[in-house]
Amino acid sequence: MENSSTMSKSAVKISLDLLSNPLCEQDQNFLNMVTALDTAMKRMDAFNQEKVNQIQKTVIEPLKKFGSVFPSLNMAVKRREQALQDYRRLQAKVEKYEEKEKTGPVLAKLHQAREELRPVRDDFEAKNKQLLDEMPRFYNSRLDYFQPSFESLIRAQVVYYSEMHKIFGDLTQQLDQPGCPDEQRERENEARLSELRALSIVADD
């Protein structure tokens, strides 16, 4: 979007520079042409700014908001991974005591390990279930979230290029000389360029 804004601003500057050219004071037809160009460039810049604002509001900002959920999502995944590590560590501790000879002290430690394992296992299972339930919903909701932005982007582009077609169509009608095809203009320009090249001040050394 920056490039688009820069381009339209540059076009306006070119037309303004042409308006300040001394030729505009000397040739009324040239002044009329440059004035028509300046009007068209300003209209183009105005519609371009509207397009940029629309895209910023309906596409860029929603994308940024969508991206802002990823830190929380990543944190939920990390909490689940930490809960899994704690669960595995205590599960391994329980299994170690289960494999030992069932003496009084071992049974006491086994009971204690199982008691420690229970809330950790419940915590892991809750976090794991939450991710299993919500991750598919998050994944599947992307299209529903982005579709309005895509539709708005397309509408903004259609409106902009429709207006550009009208603006430059109007400009063409104002600048076109009846009965003067492009081939004739090219020949006339080449003839003028040849005259300029023939001048001694631009002749090759």
Automatic annotation (TrEMBL):
- Compartments where found: Cytoplasm, Cytoskeleton
Molecular function as annotated in GO: lipid binding
Q: Does the keyword Cell division apply?
A: yes
UniProt keyword annotation of Cell cycle present = yes
Keywords assigned: Cell cycle, Cell division, Coiled coil, Cytoplasm, Cytoskeleton, Septation
Principal location class: cytoplasm
Q: Which SUPFAM superfamilies match?
A: BAR/IMD domain-like (SSF103657)
**Source superkingdom:** Eukaryota
**Which residue stretches, if any, does this entry annotate as coiled coil?**
73-100
Residue intervals of the BAR domain: 1-184
The UniProt entry, under InterPro entries, shows: AH/BAR_dom_sf, BAR_dom, BIN3/RVS161-like
Mention one GO biological process in which this protein takes part, according to its record.
endocytosis
Pfam families (UniProt xref): BAR (PF03114)
Cellular compartments per GO CC: actin cytoskeleton; cytoplasm
Record function comment = Involved in cytokinesis and septation where it has a role in the localization of F-actin.
The protein's name in its UniProt record: Bridging integrator 3
